[in-house]
Amino acid sequence: MKRTIIPLGPYHPLLEEPEHFKLYVEGERVVDLDVEIGYNHRGIEKLSEGKTWDQVPYLVERICGICSTSHPMAYCLAVEDLVGCDIPKRAQLIRVVVCELERLHSHLLWVGLAGHFIGYNTVWMWAWKYRETILEICEKLTGNRNHYAMFKTGGVRRDFNKEQIEYALERIVEVEKPIRMLTDAILDDPVIHKRLKGIGVLKKKDAILYSALGPTARGSGVPWDARNDEPLDGFKDLKWKVIVQKDGDVFSKGVVRLLECFESVSLIKQALLNLPEGGAIDADIREVPPGEGCGRYEAPRGEVFHYVRSDGSNMPYRHKVRAPTFNNLPTFKASCKGETIADVALIMASIDPCYCCTERVAVVDKNNNEKILREKDLLKLSVEKTRNIMKKLGKAPPLYNMEI
Amino acid sequence: MGVLKKAFKKSIWVFHLSTAACNNCDIEVLELLTPRYDVERFGIKLVGSPRHADALLVCGSVNAHAKPRLLEVYRQTPKPCLVVAFGSCGCSSGIFRDSYSIVGPVDKVLREEDPDVKIVYIPGCPPKPEAMIEGIIMGLGAI
Amino acid sequence: MKDLREKLKGKIIDIVQPREKRIYIRVEPKKAPEVIEYLFFKYKCKFCTATGMDIREGIEIIYHLAREDKNMVINVKTLVPYPNLEIKSIGKKIPAFRWVEREINEMLGVTFIGHPDMRRLLLADSFPKGKYPLRKDFKHSDVNDEDYDYERSGI
Predict the structure, then answer these.
(1) Chain C contact probe: residue of A292, A296, A329, A335 with most C CBs at under 10 A
(2) A chain contacts of residue C100, beta-carbon cutoff 8 Å
(3) How far apart are CA A200 and CA A334, in angstroms?
(4) Among A215, C121, C141, C155, which has the highest number of CB atoms less than 10 A from its own CB?
């Protein structure tokens, strides 16, 4: 008999969809895991075939709300690969600014939610408070907090003027200090170390076999980053580095994301200060000849891949979208085995997917008895484990807040 | 209507349901809880079960996975309740209107179940948090 | 590209490099698993994704792999002709390919022989059987609310 599983309310957006998880357990330990997805399927690839080349960015922006620039960026790169044209320098740097702002706000969102899930509600409120500053910068530069509609095939749609650039440089400096304070507090906390280290280890060879992407792979020592691997125009001339950690557990993935925030701030500052005076922002592509092209870009969650095929008309013949979580979700089979139920939801959060998925988790034990755990139960299990660790270490660190 | 006005005089408990959405609207709803907008000072609270809810906040264009679940949640919510369809996807399915996998915007699906359902529409992609607060309060005033 | 041409001689139809960072290899469906496994294990490529496309003669499947240290995207194209849309599954050996093969199966109707877990991935269980959304003769209006069999979704 099938259970009623209701994917509800979000806590955190996933690139593709909320899912339903089924855990097979023996006692407290997970033996196997199954994932069902498809709750957010909207038929975007088929819709692309009915839109013109310039209308598609508006459609793909709305694939995901958090990585809302990554998809149009990868699509525009795919079309530019097909046509074989070069983007003007000013447009390249504007693209870098918008993309890195998105990475910052996405990582801060993750930090807040991860904090909430282990019981550190103060972390949640603070991380989202500083995220508001970044959304204000986005609004000043592009006109909207999300879904910026900045990219078009051949360049960008709007330019930055002096006033906007000065505003952005002032506010971005404001954000750096609090992020540093948050990072130091989190990395020095012994309770967090005990809670997150050694959990959900994804070994390097598994990360390669499943082709994991983004911080999920970089946390396991695999240095894949599409900004470096393509390499992308705009990023080539700026100074930045790929952050890699070796252990493969939840803690390493968190560290990768926190350190990437600093790289993003540095990239934004460099790009804004090096914008060339005047200059075109659009390569003015008039016609898309028959052919095919691939575009890759590094979204906050991993590499986004778009493929387009053209038959010479004004609409794509085929447009393929692959979001990074599609490659990252199957890695649960490798990283969740042998873990307790209290940790499974945390491991799911560490690849940065949607929490709608953990709204209901079905747990099947070896006698084939099935029970449904709600999000409240998972949260309770996780917070209890944190409290037990705190009791053992004998201290309550400053960022901990008992209320849920 | 007197009963309704009395029921809604105090704090409003809201249940959030996300059908096939890009989740941007959902994040904006969560931002209402953060220190910047802080709707808890108005008494608006997000609850974990539809059985405790006074208002249903639905976002996303509805696809076949979500339709039976949306109807089930609506049935479980005690009446009188207010349904808030927010975001362009909730109001009219937005840019995904023509797709094979979308079975209709929120109002079309709910009116199959209950033709008298009261819906507040908050358009925007995503609607700003200020717009959402205004929309909910306007909807309560209309009841 | 020259070293690839040497090592894969006899297994591929042709190989072209239209731009600096893109290589396109054309193979027969029977040889595709061999070539992909060589590129994945011996040539150290990462799996990006696979695209299925409906062209007149059949379904064209393109496997996209990337060789990161050489900044190269290698695309392996193979044409599965109508009416028998069958090809050997690579997901049997390499877990990364499993989900995308499920997707191509439900969207275009290609059978992957030997796949360990062929269930629906993205489409709802209530979606009518026998209809493949990404084929060119399928229109958005071919499936309406009435065609969904909600009984099958178990609610």
Answers:
(1) A292
(2) 322, 326
(3) 9
(4) A215
| C76: three-class secondary structure by DSSP | strand
Q: B20: domain CATH number?
A: 3.40.50.12280
Q: Tell me how far CA of residue A366 lies from CA of A341, A343, A360, A369, C17, in angstroms.
A: 15, 19, 20, 7, 53
Distances (CA, A) of B117 to B64, B79, B82, C132: 21, 10, 8, 36
pLDDT in tens, A248-279: 888 999 899 999 999 999 999 999 999 988 88
Cα gap C18→B33, rounded to integer Å: 52
Closest CA to A302 of A257, A264, A362: A257
CA distance between the termini of chain C? 54
Which of C138, C145, C150, C153 is the best substitution to test chain B (most B C-beta atoms within 10 A)? Answer: C145
Question: How do residues A292-341 score in pLDDT, each as one tens digit?
Answer: 999 999 999 889 999 999 999 999 999 999 888 888 888 888 888 888 87
Pairwise CA distance, residues B45 & A188, whole Å: 34
CB atoms near residue A340 (< 10 Å): 14
How many domains does chain B fold into?
1
Residue A77 in tokens: 């790169």
List the single residue in B65, B68, B99 with the smallest CB-CB distance to C140. B99
- H-run or E-run covering A179: helix A162-187
A209/C94 CB distance under 8 A? yes
Sign of CA dihedral A220, A226, A227, A228: positive
Confidence of residue A364 (pLDDT cuts 50, 70, 90): low
Q: How far apart are CA A261 and CA B40, in angstroms?
A: 30
Distance CA C56, CA C54 (A): 7
Shortest alpha-carbon distance between residue A161 and chain C (Å)? 35
- Coil, helix or strand at residue A311: coil
Closest CA–CA distance from residue C100 to any residue of chain A (Å) = 9
Rg (CA), chain A: 22
* C84 CB-near residues (< 8 Å, 6+ apart): none
- Partners of B98 on chain C (C-beta within 8 Å) are 140
Average pLDDT, chain A: 82
Q: Give the span between the Cα atoms of A85 and C124, in whole angstroms.
A: 40
Q: Residue B41: is its pLDDT beyond 80?
A: no
| CATH superfamily for domain C2-137 | NADH:ubiquinone oxidoreductase Nqo5 subunit (3.30.460.80)
Q: What percent of chain B has pLDDT over 70?
A: 91
Write out the two tokens for B99.
């797709």
Tell me, rounded to whole angstroms, the distance of Cα A125 from its chain centroid: 19
How far apart are alpha carbons A142 and A150 in whole angstroms? 7
For C91, residues 6+ apart whose C-beta sits below 8 A from its C-beta are C97, C98, C101, C112, C115, C116
Alpha-helix residue ranges (DSSP H) falling in chain C: 2-7, 32-37, 98-108
Q: Count Cα atoms within 13 angstroms, Cβ side, for B91.
A: 15
Burial class (CB in 10 A: 0-12, 13-18, 19+), A266: middle
Distance, CA of B21 to CA of B13 (rounded, Å) = 22
Residues from chain B that touch C133, judged by Cβ atoms under 8 A, are: 100-101
C-beta separation of A353 from A106 below 8 A: no
DSSP letter (8 states) at residue A258: H
Token pair recorded at residue C106: 């439900």
Domains and CATH numbers, chain A: 20-40+327-393 (no CATH), 44-321 (1.10.645.10)
Residue C132 has which token pair?
A: 């493949």
pLDDT in tens, A39-67: 778 888 899 999 999 999 999 888 888 88
In this structure, the number of other CB atoms found within 10 A of the CB of residue C142 comes to 12
What is the domain extent for residue B137?
A: 2-142
